[in-house]
Amino acid sequence: TSSKIKVDLDPSTGVAVMRMQSPPVNSLNLDLLTEFTTTLEKLELDKSCRGVIITSSLPKIFSAGLDILEMYQTSPEHCGEFWRAVQEMWLKLYGSKLTTIAAINGSSPAGGCLVSISCDYRVMADNPRYSIGLNETLLGIVAPYWFKDTMANTVGHRTTELALALGRLYSAPEALKIGLVDELVPEDQVVTTAAQTMGQWLAIDEHARQVTKAMMRKPTIDKLLSNREADVDNFVSFITQASVQKSLGMYLKMLKNRKG
Ligand code: CO8
Questions:
Q1: How far is the CA of 86 from the centre of ligand 1 (A)?
Q2: Catalytic site residue from 35, 70, 88, 136
Q3: CB count, 10 Å around CB of 64?
């Protein structure tokens, strides 16, 4: 199988760039999620790597989020396997000892937003056509508590409550306003700005920074770690409900009809 992530590690700076390249929309299917996790694991073991910039090689789209086709009309076993891969990716990324910066060069709904808010810092293209948010309720599904926790850790409880209830997709300027992203820059400067910011992060004492990150994030991570199988069971029983499958089917149809 061909690679869905292109990795460039610059040993002179210790910074790797991970580019998702899975057309048409970088939807996070089982293959991409698995490759994402193993790529991060390898970089963590590589002594010459200290930071990762995560971006997309596709114009206009960072990631369309979880691949709906992995959870629409598939078996409970498959849904379970898929969900374990989503958990694994988040646990690795949110808990990474590397400095992680999302270079959000396009739209970033749902799972794409999760990847972004799991990084240490977010730089987004200043294009108001690009949006980011946890829009699960628009699909008739519910963001899991650990998506919600990651969001609340980023923008606070009340903003998360509004964002999740309404399934809000924030334009880049709105996302900056609520603190969902940290910085907006012209589209062609997203990765270079991420690299400059990375320099500031890497200037901090490595051990002090890692312990601080763990202090901030460990309680959120431990909550899922102590409950992983229950979370899988919960996902599978929810997503396989006839009414939920029907909502996903309608959403997929809406995506197709929207085309023109
Ligand atoms: N999964 C599967 N297929 C997708 C997805 C997706 N997430 N997104 C787009 N596609 C498909 C489209 O259906 C289309 O297929 P086709 O070519 O066969 O018609 C193709 O990809 C291209 O898409 P578009 O034509 O829509 O491309 P655009 O460039 O016009 O738009 C967008 C790109 C903005 C990314 C748009 O496709 C979009 O809005 N996609 C849907 C995004 C979304 O809502 N994702 C939510 C996924 S759910 C999730 O991530 C978290 C779930 C948590 C589970 C909790 C349950 C308990």
A1: 16
A2: 136
A3: 22
